[in-house]
AraC family transcriptional regulator
Amino acid sequence: MTGTGQERARHWQYAELPGVDLLRARYVHKTFVRHTHEHFVIAAIADGVEVFHHGGADRYAGPGTLALVNPDTPHTGRAGVPEGWRYGALYPPPDLVAEIAAETTSLRGAPGFTAPVLDDPYAVGLVHQVLRAADEGNALAADTLLRVAVTRLLRLNGGALPQRVPRTAGARTAARARAVLEERIVRPPTLESLAAELGTSPFALLRAFRDAYGMPPHAWLTDVRVRRARGLLDAGVLPSEAALAVGFTDQPHLNRHFTRIVGVPPGAYQRERKNVQDLRRGPA
């Protein structure tokens, strides 16, 4: 658990829930910048209020409610009351949610959540029970309760995710710009040079990219850099080396953006990952 003063957070994995990230946190002044996740976000609010911008509006999640975010969906996060908010969160990967949906629901296609906030104290309790079981090393309970929680949320608030297919010229231009940025993540072009390369104007590209991905190119690039840094940290790469590998100028630059998106510093994140890897390997 990392933290200073009133704020504290632990972001970890449990070896018996492979691919599922876990978070327990209390934030007061913390602000999450606009970002996305590759996994689902199931955040159960214990007390206080979280405000997060999602789908063009501010959403409010208070005690007994869940903030639910589908993969690759831009959103923010901040306190909605002076005392902040305390919550626990599960981040199951899309393939696990699809597996659970196929087995326990009638949903077809790629499953997801239809509303970003759900008032369901029972499901909130299930999320916190999963975290408690993981803390206690109770694999059977953690896996069972996770599946029960996801099933309940999909039955109450589930639907098929829309498929994003670029149809307009602007969407196609945005997709081409994204491919260029992914390829040149360490040394990306300026907006002007990228627009010229794609045969459009800077402001037209900015509008098209924001419409397609929910954020401007520079914010999207920071989000992708943090994602890639997480993968490198998971593999044991030092934070200072990961920073340079994904295009940040130095480790403090990585620290700042990583903490604003993930919620904990990269060093604390990596230490938790190392603990899980050591447990999986067992005694020497």
Q: What stands out?
A: The chain has a mean pLDDT of 94.
